[in-house]
Automatic annotation (TrEMBL):
<feature type="transmembrane region" description="Helical">
    <location>
        <begin position="241"/>
        <end position="263"/>
    </location>
</feature>
<dbReference type="InterPro" id="IPR013525">
    <property type="entry name" value="ABC2_TM"/>
</dbReference>
<dbReference type="InterPro" id="IPR027417">
    <property type="entry name" value="P-loop_NTPase"/>
</dbReference>
<keyword id="KW-1133">Transmembrane helix</keyword>
<feature type="transmembrane region" description="Helical">
    <location>
        <begin position="269"/>
        <end position="294"/>
    </location>
</feature>
<feature type="transmembrane region" description="Helical">
    <location>
        <begin position="201"/>
        <end position="229"/>
    </location>
</feature>
<protein>
    <recommendedName>
        <fullName>ABC transporter domain-containing protein</fullName>
    </recommendedName>
</protein>
<dbReference type="Pfam" id="PF12698">
    <property type="entry name" value="ABC2_membrane_3"/>
</dbReference>
<dbReference type="GO" id="GO:0016887">
    <property type="term" value="F:ATP hydrolysis activity"/>
</dbReference>
<dbReference type="GO" id="GO:0140359">
    <property type="term" value="F:ABC-type transporter activity"/>
</dbReference>
<dbReference type="GO" id="GO:0016020">
    <property type="term" value="C:membrane"/>
</dbReference>
<feature type="domain" description="ABC transporter">
    <location>
        <begin position="439"/>
        <end position="682"/>
    </location>
</feature>
<keyword id="KW-0812">Transmembrane</keyword>
<dbReference type="InterPro" id="IPR003593">
    <property type="entry name" value="AAA+_ATPase"/>
</dbReference>
<dbReference type="Pfam" id="PF00005">
    <property type="entry name" value="ABC_tran"/>
</dbReference>
<dbReference type="GO" id="GO:0005524">
    <property type="term" value="F:ATP binding"/>
</dbReference>
<dbReference type="InterPro" id="IPR003439">
    <property type="entry name" value="ABC_transporter-like_ATP-bd"/>
</dbReference>
Length: 717
């Protein structure tokens, strides 16, 4: 770094008897002064001059030329003087030294040693004009620090280190936030819950795992503080310092779980949460810390700190800051000479973080529970529905099915029964809906702001039947399965799983096997030797997440082992048992997802496009597997392929824009809506007319139409 020195020396030599030195130092810079570097690290460049003792101007003129010469050749070395442009003839002294010498020097005080340097240079000019051998040498010798100054520096260093620690700790919960939101976004959490995982076990296992991951980082922060020998956090303060780090690691994890419900996308959660944690754990604490020192804001600051302590990040940072100034104290906040364990210093915040740990974990469980209650969404104003009943002209078969279920609802014992199931979305964001409900007290939403994804579906699926949902993307097939599996709550209507309403998710999940549309797999996991990936759900996840539930859907570990081996062999996944799921092809991932749905022999299975992405051979093998294993189950399967429906489904429902338009067997739908069969034949032209006559005689002349006859090609419908 270059330090700039501005120096202007004026020497006026006058004839007289008495020699007098007058120094005028101006501590302000002039625009016309030349700004030149003083040298590296603030050290001035030394230029030795041998002036003519009887000609002071000659001495200065020579020094000026020498320095300017240096500035041209080595501009990074010179200290730089500014001399008025003048020729040697202006001042011509040849003999006598002046009686009075007036010297004026101006320096730029932004150069740390500018003032003493300019004084020393001016003094040497004056003394050398009298005696060429005399000189004045200046030294800088700092005064020793007092004990008070030493303590003050230590406290300031402690505050800086504490703020740095707070900045680093803000990054810890971001990875937790990303993983939790990603599991929800990728449906891996939903897949585990549908497979039989208890929600308490899920959150408890996540808590244990995340705390284990966070604590080493907290201990590393303590080790770094010890290595750099921070006096503020050593000795008597070491206990609360370490405890503060540990409690932060414990409390920030459940706090992040509660906060994660705000986000739906993992990438957005990662970036936004980082900014929020930095602001709450770094920016706000520094602001309230400064307000503690301002008498006019001290009273209001108590309430601000009370609200901000709801965040473990804030409580932890304030502990660091208060530990660093405990000896000084703050009037009305911290008594002087307080101990590190004092309530005002660390006690209040440490106790607060203990409450955070238990309180936020219970809150996370409560949020998980109420998220399955329709009345809770209605209370918040998030359960959106259309104001008027949906009136649609129904197909006769669809209307007959609806009437059958309405009239015989109490007598129906089918495993799957849908009663007017409807799902409506709002084009408005969740925040705008909450704002409308709680700020404007307005529950009315315009119909143009609503999207009806599923429109009042009625049908049932008996045991041993595979019901096929056929339709294009966006028809409402996946949304229907999402409501049946508990991922979404219906806006209206309900469904029953073995006589249990889907609002009772915990009971329904024990009877469901679910293969989602997109593979809800952890790419880094293997099929563990020779366990199928479900062992990650049953063994690893259950033990990590709960350590209390070793039975999923009523199966023992031995039964799970037997089913696992059978599924691996049946679905031809033997050669992939030791490979990460992320390395599988799309077809093998679908096999893996279908197998997860079959674990535990569930009586009800939902398969959302199970054969998508498969080659023809694998698809046919998958169809055979489904046909062989669905005799004693009720199955709903969604697909884009009529061929797949014909191969697997006993009944088919065609969905268009959320409405069940057609219903019946494959043959029934072909008879009602098909245009018959088309025969493409390669026949000798001489027999084409006879063949056509035979077909018309068999099926009727009006039912057999020749579409094309050209050469050997014959097309008949």
């Amino acid at each position: 770094m270059e330090i700039y020195l501005e120096l202007r020396i004026f020497i006026h030599l006058c004839h007289g008897i008495q020699k007098k030195l007058n120094f005028y130092f101006f501590f302000f810079a002039f625009d016309f002064l030349k700004k030149v570097p003083c040298g590296y690290n603030g050290q001035p460049y030394e230029q030795e001059a041998k002036p003519n003792t009887t000609n002071s101007y000659y001495y200065l003129h020579t020094m000026k030329n020498n320095l300017l010469d240096i500035s041209t050749k080595s501009p990074h070395k010179y200290i730089g003087f500014y001399f008025p442009n003048s020729s040697s003839s202006t001042y011509s002294y040849t003999g006598n030294v002046s009686a009075n010498i007036n010297i004026g020097a101006a320096c730029n005080v932004s150069a740390y040693h500018g003032l003493p340097i300019s004084l020393n240079l001016a003094s040497n000019v004056a003394i050398k004009s009298i005696n060429s051998n005399a000189y004045i040498q200046a030294y800088v010798q700092p005064m020793p620090l007092t004990s008070g100054q030493t303590q003050a520096i230590a406290r300031i260093k402690g505050m800086i280190q504490g703020s740095y620690l707070a900045f680093g700790l803000a990054f810890f919960p971001v990875s937790i936030m990303y993983n939790i939101v990603q599991e929800r976004e990728m449906l891996t959490k939903h897949q585990q819950l549908v497979s039989g995982m208890n929600s308490v076990a899920y959150w408890l296992g996540a808590l244990i795992f995340d705390v284990i991951m966070v604590l080493p980082s907290c201990l590393m922060a303590w080790a770094l503080s010890a290595i750099f020998n921070s006096d503020v956090y050593q000795h008597s303060a070491q206990g609360p310092f370490v405890l503060n780090l540990l409690l932060y690691g414990f409390s920030i994890v459940p706090f992040t779980y509660c906060f994660s419900w705000v986000f739906e996308r993992a990438q957005r959660a990662q970036y936004v949460s980082l900014l929020i944690f930095l602001f709450v754990g770094y920016g706000i604490p520094l602001g309230t810390f400064i307000m503690d020192f301002i008498p006019s804001t001290r009273h209001a600051n108590k309430y601000i700190k009370g609200v901000c302590r709801l965040s473990p990040s804030y409580a932890s940072t304030m502990t660091f800051l208060y530990l660093s100034i405990r000896d000084w104290g703050i009037e009305g906040v911290i008594p002087a000479k307080s101990g590190p364990w004092a309530w005002e210093v660390s006690g209040e915040n440490l106790v607060t973080m203990v409450i955070h740990f238990f309180g936020y974990f219970l809150l996370a469980l409560a949020i998980e529970y109420v998220s399955t209650i329709p009345e809770f969404y209605s209370f918040l104003g998030l359960n959106i529905d259309v104001k008027d009943p949906i009136v649609e002209e129904l197909d006769s078969d669809v209307a007959a099915e609806q009437k059958r279920i309405r009239d015989n609802r109490n007598e129906l014992h089918d495993p799957i029964v849908l009663c007017g199931l409807r799902k409506v979305y709002s084009r408005k964001s969740v925040l705008s809906l909450l704002w409308r409900k709680w700020v404007h007290s307005d529950d009315n939403i315009n119909d143009q702001d609503l999207v009806i994804a599923v429109k009042d579906i009625w049908y049932s699926v008996p045991v041993g039947q595979v019901f096929g949902f056929l339709g294009v993307n966006g028809a409402g097939k996946t949304t229907t399965l999402s409501m049946l599996s508990g991922r979404f709550l219906p806006s209206n209507g309900t469904a029953y799983i073995n006589q249990t309403p889907i609002s009772n998710q915990l009971q329904c999940r024990r009877m469901i096997g679910y293969c989602p549309q997109f593979d809800a797999l952890f790419d880094e996991h293997n099929i563990l030797n020779p366990l199928f990936a479900i062992h990650i759900y049953t063994y690893i996840y259950v033990y990590l997440y709960a350590c209390i539930d070793t039975i999923v859907k009523g199966l023992s570990a031995e039964e799970i082992q037997a089913q696992t081996n059978n599924l691996v062999t049946t679905l031809t996944l033997d050669e992939y048992v030791n490979k990460p799921a992320g390395t599988y092809s799309g077809g093998n991932k679908r096999k893996l997802s279908v197998a997860l749905a079959m674990i535990g022999n569930p009586p009800i299975v939902f398969l959302d496009e199970p054969s998508s992405g498969m080659d023809p051979v694998s698809r046919r093998h998958m169809w055979d597997f489904i046909s062989q294993t669905m005799h004693h189950r009720a199955v709903i399967l969604t697909t884009h392929s009529m061929e797949e429906c014909e191969a697997l489904c006993h009944r088919i429902g065609i969905m268009v824009l959320g409405q069940l338009r057609c219903l019946g067997t494959a043959q029934r739908l072909k008879s009602r809506y098909g245009k018959g069969y088309q025969l493409d034949m390669d026949v000798d032209p001489g027999v084409q007319a006879d063949l056509t006559n035979v077909l018309q005689a068999e099926f009727g002349q009006t039912n057999v139409i020749v579409l094309e006859s050209h050469g050997n090609s014959l097309k008949i419908r």
